[in-house]
Amino acid sequence: MATAVLESGERETYLNREYGIKSWLLTVDHKRIALLYLMGITFFFFIGGFFALLIRLELLTPAGDLVQADTYNKLFTMHGQVMVFFFLIPAVPAVLGNFLIPIMIGAKDLAFPRINLLSWYLYIIGGMLMVYTILAGGVDTGWTFYTPLSTEFLKTNVTTAALAVFVSGFSSILTGLNFIVTIHRMRAPGMTWNRLPLFVWAHYATSIIQVLGTPVVAIAIVLVALERLFHLGIFNPTLGGDPLLFQHLFWFYSHPAVYIMILPGMGIVSEIVCCFSRKRVFGYKAMALALLGIAVVGFLVWAHHMFVAGISLYAALIFSFLSYFVAVPSAIKVFNWTSTMYKGSITYQTPMLYAFGFVGLFTIGGLTGLFLACLGVDVHVTDTYFVVAHFHYIMVGGMVMAYLGGMHFWWPKISGRLYPEGWGRLAALLVFVGFNLTFFPQFILGYMGMPRRYWDYSHSPEFQILNVLSTAGATILAVGYLLPMIYFLWSMRYGKPAPDNPWNAAGLEWTIPSPPTTFNFEEQPVVTWEAYNYDELDQRREEVPVAH
Amino acid sequence: MHTSPPATVEGEAHENPALLHHFATEEQQKNAASLGMWIFLITEIMFFGGMFCAYLVYRYSYFGDFAAASSSLDLKLGTINTIVLIGSSLTVAMAVRCAQVGKQKAIAVYLLLTIILGVAFLGIKAIEYKQKFDEHHVPGLANFHLEGHVPRHADVPVNQNHAQIYFSLYFAMTGMHALHMIIGIALLGFMIIRARAGAYTTGHVTYVENFGLYWHFVDIIWIYLFPLLYLISRH
Amino acid sequence: MANNVDALYIFLLVVSALMSVLIFTMVIFFAVRYRKKAGVRAEQIDGSHALEITWSLIPFCVFMVFFVWGAAIYFKERRPPQNSAEVYTVAKQWMWKFEHMEGQREINELHVPVGRDVKMIMTSQDVIHSFYVPAFRIKQDVLPGRYTVAWFHPTKAGTYHLFCAEYCGTMHSGMVGSVVVMEPKDYQAWMGGGGNQPLAVTGEKLFAELGCATCHKTDTQGRGPNLVALFNKPVLLEDGRTVVADENYLRESILQPTAKIVNGFKPVMPTFQGQISDEQLNALVAYVKSLGQQSNAPAHNVAAATPQP
Q: Which neighbouring-strand residues pair with C85?
């Protein structure tokens, strides 16, 4: 194969093709844009994580003795906003999705590379607005912006925070649009829908949600900003408005948003489990349909966040009923991943450890969702730490672990280097232990009655011991997250160079060099094999043993 | 891994400067652009949909006050604007047609007509907004007051709070619509320059076609806004 | 009722634990049993329709049990029994204000007797709050501009935490108090001390002061509808709709009389929005509710709650 070689003798890749800040800031190469996003989301992850650490430190003691009440309220608000809008929603799609989707379908780039770059700029502008909000004194509405508190009663930077979320929402919409068109129109010959990796299916389902849901929260936020700026009464009861209307508009997006956050993670887990079990996935069609099913049904359940908000009894019954529907495809996926391991040939590299963690923790998180969908129980545990524990099990135990698993799995492809496996496994273990210690006690705290968003719980000192356990776990979790930061960076300079396919994994991305060239493929691939053709791959490797 | 004989995309790109490097064929590029625009329009439906939803909820609850507020809008100007906008959809459709059959000079003319009609729409809208300002119908201001009574009850004055909600949504919805028109007009200006440079020759009309879709969409939003806002309970 | 919630919770817990143990065990077992061994290849299995259907339907059936049981509890929670003792609640940043029908006012502490149903009729003066008593397993958001309702039936004397459970600003975590459940004897003693004016009597006085009696007569047909025995009855409106005259209807009628015009009457009632406080509004509502209801007649002495066995 003719590969371009630079003057230095190095093989030309997307990383060394051009140097200089302009070549990065004006790039239209989806792989470079993915790395630009990686820098942004890592930055926001640590900001959000820092806020979380302060929250946990405050909660070590019942009294509010670390920070003031207003400061604490800002901490949990901004932890939520930063993590949801600037980390969880973009992370997998904008980093791994951007990097891998064109390659996985055999294309040279996304359908609209310039819009891809625009998406990044919108994300950065939104991010800068968020940073400005933080530096200008923060905002304390709660990430949910409930009215009339956010429109009439707070003097903090509500409008700039709303604007930050609004702008970053367009980034999300454009990314989703780009992915849908790419997956529909840019698949290489032979790459039929039935041969798509589940990672691609997952992003397709995610993109549908991004495209349909985000505009609604955008308008909800615009109305809140207008209300604040012009003293309007759209959500203000004293002026004839209805605060519940805001909640409906907000949750209509924000519930599907949680599926935006988790579906890409599920796609990653499918890729990893298949690779490290050396098997095609159990029930490919069911897995793909489950992804679509979650996306669609996810739009029908939003008011399960409002069971005690004052909605009608019959509305509550309907939304509870529908919420049980969305649990079924999620359960199917867990069963299918488990079945994929059956009679596999399993190894325990770091990505697989994260995948194991995901399956276990997502199961627990999902099961606790059943508690919340249950009207009688939800009345007791909503707005308590039970909910906090539930969504952190899914977001952190699920999505962040999937994200880390994916980063480790594709790191050799992205950077051309191998990360140190020993450290990888240690970090995975620390994350798993730290995570459970942080969040499991919170289920108990919630059932005991500790409400969310409480700066001070000195009236209930019985909550302390569980809070201390939770904080202890958070410190371990923090170390677990710092380690990959350090060794990924280390590996870029000192890591062993990676071969094209260190995992002998299936998928078009493993047929091109690590790191890839700018246009991915020398010639357009023609696909004649099914997804997850691990029997073929293992057969080939046995016949031609490769010395690693 | 198999390989088939190399079909370098570089070759085709050299022949055809309009084909972007990451597409294999022009048809793929055209289809992608079209699909992209349709999906974008769907996101716009969801965007406006949120506001329509809020409007419909309050209209149901405060029908009388909304009807009174609606009748304070200038029906004549609203109707003229509707005709102007429909006319501009016609001119943009003509521009697309000319591009498709290669009538180069006519493209710029029709695009220019579209701009003129679009600007006319915005001008009339500005007049209406000024009317609202003069009549003290701008919500959130201290001097807001909607005179009159609710339909069928001469003795029930309009609830000022509910009327303000009507006008809040009126300005939000028509303002958002106007913003989309301004963006459209800017794009039209850009397109006229490109048209005169001969960019939209036969076979390279994707940009104009997709813009046409966008412009028709903005028109359709108005077709919904007009009866919902202007025609409540008119006699 | 708290026991019912706990029973359901334990059921959910057991099923979830079983499910988790099942998955965890299988994953760990497979991870060990099918770990890579030299010479042994993975067996490619496409899937199984039968399994997919089975493990979709069975969980769904179990979910439906959760749904029905939970819905049954919720149904009861949303429908306070007739003849509950009523407590009007006004929440504000950052305190709870309670007013008993007998006139006692309390801040942040609510005294109730064992064995009597208590219905909280709640509104907020500012932002959304939430009335949460973990020990009773109840929670209800408290909204500005309307009433929301919660009820409970205390079974054991004691002091129980009351929390605000909807983030409401700076001192959200300080908006706490307690529900003090007393033995009926002790409750009578507590109530007896203090010559409070029953809420409905306060309402009666306001009704006269504000001129309501001018139009709302009880003996003849006035310009306004007769309010006697109106509460919780259906009302025909002039646009053809029929609504039930619940607390929210009464409240709206006072604050926005033209929102729902009763069939056969003219919309001449003036609005009292901005002229009366939430507490005064509560008193008027309590008064109107008491008209024509024997058991809820404004009591001028300690309202003897018929002791429940």
A: C118
Q: What are phi and psi of B163, to 5 degrees?
A: -65, -35
Neighbours of B123 (CB within 10 A): 12
Provide mean pLDDT across the span A430-457: 96
Tens digit of each residue's pLDDT (9 = 90 or more) over A242-282: 999 999 999 999 999 999 999 999 999 999 999 999 999 99
Amino acid making up residue C224: G
In the three-class reduction of DSSP (H, G, I as helix; E, B as strand; rest coil), residue A417 is classed as strand
Mutation for B interface: A114, A166, A216, most B CBs within 10 A: A216
- What pLDDT was estimated at residue C298? 44
In the predicted model, what is the mean pLDDT of residues A364-382? 96
- The answer to whether the CB atoms of A526 and B4 lie below 8 A apart is yes
Residue among B64, B150, B155 minimizing CB distance to C266: B155
Residue contact B35–A213, C-beta within 8 A: no
From A211, which residue of chain B is nearest by alpha-carbon distance?
B43
- Domain B34-230: CATH class, spelled out: mainly alpha
Under a CB-based contact definition with an 8 Å cutoff, are residues A122 and A177 in contact?
no
Q: C41 to chain A, minimum CA–CA distance in Å? A: 6
Alpha-carbon distance B61 to nearest alpha carbon in chain A (angstroms) = 10
pTM for this prediction: 0.93
Name the residue facing B161 among A177, A213, A240 (closest C-beta).
Answer: A240
Please, what are the domains in chain C? 85-192 (2.60.40.420), 199-290 (1.10.760.10)
Give the residue extent of every domain in chain A. Answer: 25-543
Edge-to-edge strands of the sheet including C129-133? C109-113, C177-182, C158-164, C129-133, C138-142
Contacts 24+ apart (CB under 8 A), B141-146: B146/B68, B146/B69, B146/B72
Say whether C66 and A278 touch across the interface (CB within 8 A): no
Q: Note the pLDDT of residue B124.
A: 97
Of B203, B192, B221, nearest in space to B30 by CA: B203
CATH number attached to the domain at A25-543: 1.20.210.10
What confidence score (pLDDT) does residue A482 get?
Answer: 96
Chain B residue numbers touching A220 (CB-CB < 8 A): 50
Determine whether the interchain pair A308/C8 forms a contact, defined as Cβ–Cβ distance below 8 Å: no
